[in-house]
Amino acid sequence: MNIKVGIFWFAENTLIFKAQSAIDLKPDQLGFIDSTLQHQVEWEDNNIYQLFGLMLDSTDYYNFPRGRIVFNAEQNTSYVYLDKSLFKKHIVKKIKANFSLLDTNVRFFTDPHYNCFGSI
To answer: What residues does each domain of the chain span?
Structure first.
């Protein structure tokens, strides 16, 4: 079981993501494992969307709905924080598949931090 943590967006019907294996990272004092990946850096400096065949050079990272996945080691549960517009069965399925969450406990949370002002 190689559970992953990381960040993601949903743009142009594509899940854009960067994941890290949770086993390679250390939990914090509360037992949470999170990646150090930052949405702004990956989008604006590293142009992550190009890896998924998208040309979104003139866009800002916050123009598309996004989220983050952390792992709670004490509860053996992945926490998915995401824009409420992403809480759709086909999108959730893509998130779970790409972060190796199909056979694990997962809890979903909407978070004002990930609210998107654009539409998908």
So the answer is: 4-114
What CA–CA distance (Å, rounded) separates 13 from 119? 11
C-alpha span between 116 and 94 (Å, rounded): 19
Q: With the C-alpha atoms ordered 87, 93, 96, 97, is the resulting torsion angle positive or negative?
A: negative
Res 120: pLDDT? 46
Convert 63-91 into a string of H (helix), E (strand) and C (coil): HCCEEEEEEECCCCEEEEEECHHHCCHHH
The secondary structure of residue 53, as a DSSP letter, is T
Cβ–Cβ contacts within 10 Å for residue 109, how many? 12
Taking the whole predicted model, whether its pTM rises above 0.85 is answered as yes
pLDDT per residue over 28-83, tens digit each?
Answer: 999 999 999 999 999 999 999 999 999 999 999 999 999 999 999 999 999 999 99
